[in-house]
Amino acid sequence: MYRYDSFDQKFIDERVAHYRDQTRRYLAGELSEEQFLQLRLRNGLYIQRLAPMLRVAIPYGTLSSRQLRMLAHIARHYDRGYGHLSTRQNIQFNWPELEEVPDILADLAKVQMHAIQTSGNCIRNVTTDEFAGVAADEEIDARPYCELIRQWSTSHPEFDWLPRKFKIAVTGAPVDRAAINVHDIGIRAYPAPGRRSGTDGEDLFDIKVGGGLGRTPVIGALIREGLPARHLLTYLEAIMRVYNRYGRRDNKYKARIKILVRAMTPEGFKARVDEEWSHLENSASTLTPAEIARMRAHFRPPDYPPREGAAETLAADRLRDPSFDQWVRLNVSAHKQPGYAIVTLSCKPTGVPPGDVDDRQMEAVAGWAEAYGFGEVRISHQQNFVLPDVAADALHDLWRSARALGLGTANRNLATDIICCPGGDYCSLANAKSIPVAEAIQQHLEDQDYLHDLGEIDINISGCMNACGHHHVGHIGILGVDKKGREYYQISLGGHSGDDASLGKIVGPSVSRDEVIAVIQDILDTYLAHRIEDESFLHCVRRLGLEPFKERIYAKAA
Q: If pLDDT is split at 50, 70 and 90, which confidence band does 333 have?
């Protein structure tokens, strides 16, 4: 992973000192609420319904054991013993004291971490596939390019005050696990035909713009194919300049780049970008082979000791323990290196808000990353921990330890692996609570045989139209709405964030919280009644359309 040099460390330390002084001035009454607002947002601090919330940056979801231990320390000493993993691969603390935030930032700086640009109208945390660099199906490790984008975009003077927040995702795998279609900019990286990444040819990029969720969900439009790697930053700069110049600032609900792309049309927007790029193509931001190689060196794979007999040991463990076998089938993914595996540690046990992890769990995951791997941890946009380098013959020991701490649930990509925003329990923007709905669904679907028979189903829950729970791209999406002061929930079907991305379609009138479980069960019953052999839920919904589900859900009210 990327390690700070002396410039990076000095930059972060000075930023902490600046914010400490800004906080002192605010608490002394020398800065108004309005003046302090943008200062705290640029350092990741929100004021939520009950307390401040600090969002800590985890660049492209990658952190070290040492860094995770620092997050555990912060949870214990400055919060209430836990943090919340977000869909942007970051972590949030919901209960810090405003006057202690500079101390938290100083502690983060000790382990090369910060909260810069995790909020505000700027380029946010650049995200990628949580399996980047280790997945067996991967073509390119996207993380070096994510880091180049991160360094280029951090405190960029031209893009520090955009019309609205801005999100970029990159994937280097043929299967999109980074949701590039629903980002302001989505990037697919791949080697030049007939060549291998980083060896005998220049990597290429397909660029999509104008994707996003929120009030106006949109699938991004492809505006550039086969962009050579040397031009990545200059082309992104051209996109940002066009957005900065023409994006609306008079109405925050119409300020996202997706609105601008729709107004100009993708073809018109591309023409503007190409015109701007003609002035930037060979400018100072052009990437040299040496700079790309330098960044790749930070992400060089470890020296994997051979694991002779690991496959046989794993096979024997799976035969001996059916519960372990089930966990391996769901939560363990194929690794590039023989004898190793990628492990998803589910942060979705029943009874715990999805994505919430306590300090004990953080400490344990940090220890497992060292004991079973090379000291690296990932955070997925599904709000789970990932251990990228686990020896196959150590999986059974890891699973037993994870189960003891509530991180060993075998439910990756199943209906209880719910993506959920904090909702009305914490967020001042929410119309309804999300966490109790997620918990009720998990409790209702606790039967493991039934859950596994249903197969892969993404349930995403948002407490408001800002869509932090990505409900638009859930196979089943649940949106909290307000009806005369009462909480109701709108249900949509058929969303998908990966390849062949789609936005869910609203089934019908919203329902009360007490009715949500019955509606979910009606949806699942309809699927089971109509599926063809092993047909997936998403495929079944796309084949049938909404009518059979509508008829089942609303027949009782007719």
A: very high
Q: Are 343 and 409 in contact (CB under 8 A)?
A: no
Same domain, 512 and 480: yes
Domain span at residue 433 reads 419-555
Task: Give pLDDT tens digits for 452-475.
Answer: 999 999 999 999 999 999 999 999
Alpha-carbon torsion 87, 91, 96, 99, what sign? negative
Same domain, 137 and 200: yes
The number of residues making up the chain comes to 558
Residue 154 and residue 289 in one domain: yes
- C-alpha distances in Å from residue 518, one per residue of 12, 351, 459, 479, 511: 50, 19, 15, 16, 10
Residue 193 and residue 159 share a domain: yes
User: Each residue of 504-516: pLDDT tens digit?
Assistant: 999 999 999 999 9
First to last CA, the chain: 58
Q: What is the pLDDT of residue 556?
A: 65
Number of domains in the chain: 4
Measured between alpha carbons, how far is 451 from 456 in angstroms, rounded to an integer?
9
Mean pLDDT of the chain: 96
Q: Which helix (H) or strand (E) holds 22?
A: helix 6-27
Q: Kind of pairing, strands 127-128 and 168-171?
A: parallel
